[in-house]
Amino acid sequence: MWSAFGRGAEVDLRGSTHPVRAEVLAELLTGGGDRAAGSRAALRLRSARIVGRLDLRHAEITVPVSIGGCSFTDVPELTEARAVNLALTDCDLPGLRARLLHLRGDLVLLNCVVTGPVDLRDAHVGGTVTLNGSRLADLAPAGDPVFPPIDPGTALAAGRLSVTGNLHARQGFVADGQVWLGGATVGGNLALDGATLRHPAGAALSADRLTVAGSLTARWGFTADGDVLLMHAQIGSQLNFHNARLQGAAMFALHLGGARVGSVWLTLAERPAGRVRLSGLQADTIFDDPATWPAELDLIGCTYRLLIARAPSPPREPSPPVPVTVRQRLDWLRRSPEGYTPQPYEQLAEHYRRSGQEAEARRVLLERQRRRRATLRVPGRLFGVLVDGLVGYGYRTWLAGIWLLAFWALGTLSFTLDPSAARNPAEAPERNAALQALDLLLPIVNLGHDNAWKPVGGTEYVAALLVLAGWVLSTAVVAGLTRTLNR
């Protein structure tokens, strides 16, 4: 192995019973070994059992490292090391400590089984991080401290990790414990497609203030048995949970409070178990599916330009559109556990206006007033019922026309059954109960019957009612016509 290192050749110890001492590997990587002139030294080791602790803390490693099919008896130490790249494939490790690691190239942890925490806090990777097919678990024995300590139950601690390229944890990636990416930065895409994250005691994925220049995808079989927390995350393109399963453990199945994303795909495989919080989310487009809307949905402060309903679909197949009525969208808004707040209704109405659906926008704003009415005291609720019934809070002014016709019919019937007396018999026009009632109902307009005939008996009260109703209802009708003409 010593001579192979200098030539960059691979050493395969398959079938050998001899272990490899970790201190030998550390000596090779930190400047030892026979490096042939003109050759490219590299550590390429397969199918070995590595005993002892591979201690490379603060080391400067100038050669590529590729270890495959090996098992480690102790946790490798790469804290504050600087290296070209690191590739571990099909390996068994009791953990990995690489806080403040600096790699110029890629970090590969492919199809590995890691039974203790993987510590990548504050690390910098100049290439791509690949964790595909690996199984991580927090099974570290007590009395094996990590400084600064990692929260118990954390399988992957990558807070403030910086990755210039992509971060891939898909194709069978499993984490039995929390995946922490708080404050991490990914220059490309973050892919969790098909991954399984299990932490029933709390957050399966904790990534507050995560920054992803491209897309964060957790599609096609992604499963989170625990909370998914992405508060104040910044994602340049898609945040995609298409065909995913979210089973919140503590409180939130999904928390996107304060996040900024290009588009959000919430076309889940099934209804999430737990609350979904989109408060403060800023998105250009939200894709969702009425069949998987959560029982509790917080939309306070959520802003978007478009709402598009799509159904889940198999991988690589287009997602079919789903028709959603305004009644369904109103039910969507009512799922807020915080009770009535006006902003979600105004935001939905703005979406309908932007789409040219004025009738739907008015329906949403009318429902906003009705929900507000339920929060008022009894006098306010009674007045609200009156205004709603007469003109629909100004969003159904055609109701005023119906009421005008009803009052006109009432006046016509009253003046027919109890005729009015002529004020001046010599000049009075022919008695016409319908025109007299219409003359009282229409303000400003004079048909010559109001001043010619004087109501008597109970019709005096009917006449007063017609005058009052005429002013109120005619104003509402004119306002509705003006709004229509302005459009």
Describe the 3D structure.
By secondary structure, the protein is of the alpha/beta class. Among the domains are: 1-143; 398-486. The chain is built from nine helices and 37 strands. The strands form four sheets. The protein has a 19-stranded parallel beta sheet that branches. Strands 9, 10, 13, 14, 17, 18, 21, 22, 25, 28, 30, 32 and 34 form a 13-stranded parallel beta sheet that branches. The longest helix has 28 residues, at 459-486. The radius of gyration is 36 Å and the shape is rod-shaped. The mean pLDDT is 88.
How is this fold's topology laid out?
Layout: H1 2-7, E1 10-12, E2 20-21, H2 22-29, E3 43-46, E4 49-51, E5 65-68, E6 71-72, E7 82-83, E8 86-89, E9 92-93, E10 96-97, E11 102-103, E12 107-110, E13 113-114, E14 118-119, E15 124-125, E16 129-130, E17 135-137, E18 154-157, E19 162-163, E20 167-168, E21 174-176, E22 178-180, E23 185-186, E24 190-191, E25 196-206, E26 211-212, E27 216-217, E28 223-229, E29 234-240, E30 245-255, E31 260-266, E32 273-277, E33 282-288, E34 297-298, E35 306-309, H3 326-333, H4 342-354, H5 358-373, H6 378-391, H7 398-417, E36 421-422, H8 433-441, E37 453-454, H9 459-486
Parallel strand pairs: 1-3, 2-4, 3-5, 4-6, 5-8, 7-11, 8-12, 9-13, 10-14, 11-15, 12-16, 13-17, 14-18, 15-19, 16-20, 17-21, 18-22, 19-23, 20-24, 21-25, 22-25, 23-26, 24-27, 25-28, 26-29, 27-29, 28-30, 29-31, 30-32, 31-33, 32-34, 33-35
Antiparallel strand pairs: 36-37
Q: From the structure provided, what is the oligomeric state, counting identical versus distinct chains?
A: single chain
Helix content: 25-40%
Continuous helix count: 9
Q: What value does the average pLDDT take?
A: 88
The best one-word shape is rod-shaped
Number-wise, the strands total: 37
- Secondary structure category: alpha/beta
* Cα distance spanning the termini: 82 Å
**What low-confidence regions span 5 or more consecutive residues with pLDDT below 50?**
none
Keywords: Membrane, Transmembrane, Transmembrane helix
Protein name: Oxidoreductase
